Predict the 3D structure of the following.
Amino acid sequence: MRLGIHLPQIGRKAGPEAIRRAAEQAEQLGFADVWTSEHIILPNGAPYPPSPSFYDPVLALTWAAAYTSRVGLGTSVLVLPMRHPLPLAKELATLQNLSGGRFILGAGVGWLEAEFEALGVPFHERGRRMDEGIAMMRAVWSDDPVTFEAKYVPAVIDNMRMQPKPEKPIPIWIGGTSEPALKRALRYDGWHGSRATPEQAAPIVARLRSERPDPDFAISLRNAWDGRDEGALRARLQGYQAVGIGHVLVEPFERELGDWLAAVERIARAGEGMLS
């Protein structure tokens, strides 16, 4: 099993120095990858997420990539239906090439209706827009010239060109535990779940593996850690490994950068034997 770590790009700890230090630390400790999350705009006083301060996930990973050479880079998750696929495809291809092919696209449909309304995106079409958006991005990443008939995303793409192409294919891991999310994950390169216990994850893993036994299909889970008990964290990681999860992303709870970096050191100790 491989371990990843979330970067401090949310809340009062976030900033260029924090992202740089955390990315460098993750690479030095042997974590497989570093991750960012996304919200663009939030209602004032929203109970969750706890902070409206979100550094852009793609730019934060680009910043992290500039200070590292090996550690992977992932999004947990980009809310694809909120974004137009064409500029996003350009950004992600650029990140993939600037980083030497280290990027993993974790993607989800989103859940905050007010955020979609602020962006002028139909909330109840988000599943269809996500499927069409992924297809559109894959088309412009591979075809040259490209023609693509769009139904849900406003776009007229007829005999057009977009470069650069990604130098390596960008893996797409789908987030979520709903039936549509699991079916969508099976069509792409992996599943990226969130906050399930090993017991809760086991039947999902079994189902996914029954339909996608190929080792290139990733099964990943995001888990938050309160920093209290390294032994309990190690037992949780071993439990994930035992049910067949191949990758775990750990997100510390700490709000101050110094505490965050110290927690990452403790996560590395708890994950001894799972780091490169």
Summary: The chain has a mean pLDDT of 97. The CA atoms of residues 125 and 152 lie 8 Å apart. The longest helix spans residues 126-142.
